[in-house]
Amino acid sequence: MPRQSPSLARATPDLIARTALSIIDEEGPSALSFRSLAERLGVSHATIHRRCTDLGGLIDLCTDHLAAGLPEIPPGTAWAEATERRFRTLYELLTAHPGLVALRGSRPWLSPQLLARLVEPALADSVAAGMTPEQAFRTYRRMYLLTLGSATFVDHREPALTVKSTRTALAALDPAEFPVLTGGMDVILPGMTDHEVYYGALRQLIEAAHP
User: Fold this and answer.
1) Inter-residue contact 34 to 70 (CB < 8 Å)
2) Which of 8, 53, 209, 210 meets the CB 3.0–4.6 Å disulfide criterion with 139?
3) Are 185 and 175 in contact (CB under 8 A)?
4) How far apart are CA 25 and CA 81, in angstroms?
5) Given phi > 0 = left and psi -120 to 50 = alpha, else beta, which region is 3?
């Protein structure tokens, strides 16, 4: 059996993913490359390439690493409780790493860990609770889109910056043309970074879909 090179043995998938996420979180998504990752890890560009093949593979590796943090729900847990726990945790993971969400773009979130720890058990629980497969998928899809969308459009790691940029944009509007937006900033600005907007919407979807 051929021996694995020391650099490849050192650059494990988990270490690569954690280091890549650190670069994204600290320097922004545009800073992530095989070169910057190799420099941070002290290995060659070729070593990263052998692990990931391309940037898409690297992003998949990061996604899989995050998905490992999704909860394993004990058997017998009530459907509504299990569903809320799964999607709340997904939301918290995504909002903690907005740069990764931006890098993924329109790529599907289909990493092995995500399928095993979220998609399959969520669908299985819904079917076991009395939904048809079609109902289970539609329910999952709605909650998934709510979660991804809520995590995508606001950088919750920089709430002050989000509020400031929104305030600046609204202040530039003509009050005669946009009376609700310009007159409602006291309501709009806090809601931009309020996680309860997502949690409340998730609970409404769960209540509406309850088998």
Assistant:
1) no
2) 209
3) no
4) 31
5) beta
As a whole number of angstroms, the distance between CA 34 and CA 84 comes to: 36
Phi, psi (5° rounding) for residue 143?
Answer: -70, -35
Number of C-alpha atoms within 13 angstroms, CB side, residue 168? 6
Residues 6+ apart with CB under 8 A from 210: 79, 80
CA 129/CA 79 separation, integer angstroms: 7
Q: What is the DSSP letter of 2?
A: P
Between CA 79 and CA 24 the distance in angstroms is 35
Residue 157 phi, psi (nearest 5): -80, -15
Token pair of 169, please?
């944009």
Structure tokens at 191: 């809601």
Could you tell me where the beta strands, DSSP code E, fall in 22-142? none
pLDDT (tens place) for every residue of the chain, 211 residues total: 444 556 666 778 899 999 999 999 999 999 999 999 999 999 988 888 888 888 888 998 999 999 999 999 999 999 999 999 999 999 999 999 988 988 887 777 778 899 999 999 999 999 999 999 999 999 999 999 999 989 887 776 777 887 888 889 988 999 999 999 888 888 888 887 788 999 999 999 999 999 8
Q: Is 93 exposed, middle or buried (0-12, 13-18, 19+ CB in 10 A)?
A: buried
Tokens of 193: 């970074």
Rg (Cα) of the chain, in Å, rounded? 21
User: How much is the pTM?
Assistant: 0.84
